[in-house]
Amino acid sequence: MGLPMEQVPELVETFLSHTQVRFAPPTAKEAAALDALLVRAWEEARAQWPTVTLPVSRFVIHLAERLPPINPVGPIGPLVASLSLAELYLTCACLQGMASAHEAFERNYLARLPVKLRSLRQPDAMIDDVCQITRVKLLVATPESAPRIGDYTGKGALLSWVLVTAGRIASKLRASEKPAPDDSSEELLQVLPGQGIDPELDVMKRRHHEAFRQAVREAASTLSPHDRHLLRLHFANQLTTYELGSLFRVNQSTVSRWLKSARQHVYEETRSRLQERLGLSTLGFKSFLAFIGSQLWT
Fold this sequence. Notes:
- About 65% of the residues lie in helices and about 0% in strands.
- The chain is mainly alpha-helical.
- It has three domains: about 1-100, no CATH class; about 110-180, no CATH class; about 180-295, Butyryl-CoA Dehydrogenase, subunit A, domain 3.
- α1 (about 10-15) runs parallel beside α3 (about 55-65), α2 packs across α5 and α12 crosses α15 (about 250-280).
- The longest helix has 27 residues, at about 250-280.
- The relative contact order is 0.08.
């Protein structure tokens, strides 16, 4: 027979109140065993990460929230014991933004990424970018989301999980390095200002689709290496301005200014190429676009 909740040890009550499954009250024996397991896991994690001091209740909540849904009448202890508890302790502290935890994570995991990535035959020229983006994705909070380190659930080794994350980032980087095919250049078009900012350019997008795409590709090729890298990270790898700020060690407003400048450059170069290709003066070019617009909306 299960214990009344008021007789359940405090840590066990905290744990059970934060799991995805509502378990039946444990027996006195089960509650004592789970309480001992949680305390032992916390103590062993503190011993493994001596510079990282995390309250036991915060660790237990973090652990409970990452426990996968299981049969509510099944044993909890063996499932908890099967997880990488000391590494969950570290990732919990990282999620809290603790500098000591970040340092331990960088030293024991991120610092090992270059060798691991080389063993997987990742290009040397890309490894530094992959490592930096991995760090930002895992440790930097944005207004939209908490650091991705919180996605680690303790199943398997943390280093393996980090390596999988880095591998996915490397795949995206490799894909973004390839020239866009003629029939798929949507990412290039994203660097331009949004629809409606320039109605004339919007007309060209709709009525002269292929010519417009070619002009955008040519315009993008005139960007500086820094701006190309910035736009690739922002659009292809979906790093936010906050994440880019952390990556480049500047504030978010500076990144926003860089992005605006790079997009404006592509915008102006695109217009210039279209105008030159049509062989029209500035006035003639605008008149031609106005004519196309009148045809489009009639």
